[in-house]
Amino acid sequence: MNPAKIGKDIVAGNGKFVILGGPCVAEGLDICMQIAAFLKKACADRGIQYVFKASFDKANRSSGKSFRGFGMEEGLKILAAVKKELDLPVVTDIHESCQAEATAEVADILQIPAFLCRQTDLLVAAAKTGKAVNVKKGQFLAPEDMKSVVGKLADAGCKDIMLTERGTSFGYHNLVVDMRGLQTMREMGHPVIFDATHSVQLPGGLGNASGGQREFIPALSRAAAAVGIDGLFMEVHPTPEKALSDGPNSLDFAGAERVMDEVLKIYELTRKM
After folding, report:
1. For 217-262, how does the pLDDT look when each residue is reduced to its tens digit (9 = 90+)?
2. C-alpha to C-alpha distance for 121 and 198, rounded to whole angstroms
3. pLDDT tens for residues 186-221?
């Protein structure tokens, strides 16, 4: 496997496990600091590498009236502050090619949203920054289709590639996870991350917003760890019912710790097999 180097000290793959976690959207500096500080300690206590995750803009909200964030400039300031104050690498989404360069000045991983995973110009722009790139597999793609995504990134010079499974569309307002896809993508030679929280999302399930079934997060996470993953992506909020985006499929602090503990036990077991 070609491990992915993240920032100065973190490596994903080849026996190195990583957590990408935080709120769906950067709701404000104080709440981001609270979540990042909690996850940093929780991961450190368990010997896990940690990258703070928050989006500066949610450009694909179900409703045009939903909270998207404070915009790119203010959102990146929040991420930069968390990175500096807590000495953490950060990951955030980009939605347009023109966002790549400025975002790369702050983020250690540029993340490509699932809906945009085949957008060649976006992939190339992210690759050319020299930063690690995490691509979420489109809900509409077969796992083997990600080989072309990897090819686009590699051809543009990206050396640190990560692929994330986040569920596949199954009828209306529903997703399923085909665990075979984790193996298929890992065979492409790059670290694979399991998105534990978006995989239980019910896209557009609330009419003007997405719903979610967080009660299934632990079971799916355990299953993914048993198949084989190199990291876990999860959205975490101290009070998910008050989160400004993706609350129904976010974990609270206790839930996040439970998932980490269960996944780590299985991850360590599979490494011995």
Report:
1. 999 999 999 999 999 999 999 999 999 998 999 999 999 999 999 9
2. 25
3. 999 999 999 999 999 998 767 666 778 999 999 999
Cα angle vertex 246, ends 44, 184, to 5°?
A: 70
Query: Cα torsion at 217, 222, 223, 224 (round to 10°)?
Result: 90
Q: Supply the DSSP string of 111-156, one letter for each residue.
A: EE-GGGTT-HHHHHHHHHTTSEEEEEPPTTS-GGGHHHHHHHHHHT
Tokens of 139: 């809900």
> Which long-range contacts link 10-13 to residues 24+ away (Cβ below 8 Å)?
10/49, 10/51, 10/89, 10/108, 11/49, 12/49, 12/162, 12/191, 12/193, 12/230, 12/231, 13/190, 13/191, 13/230
Look-up: residue for tokens 């299953």? 223
CATH of domain 4-271: 3.20.20.70
Contact 28, 240 (CB under 8 A): no
Q: Which candidate, 89, 32, 94, 31, places its Cα nearest to that of 57?
A: 94
Q: 94-104: per-residue pLDDT in tens?
A: 999 999 999 99
Per domain, the residue ranges of the chain are: 4-271
- Residue 180 predicted with pLDDT over 90: yes
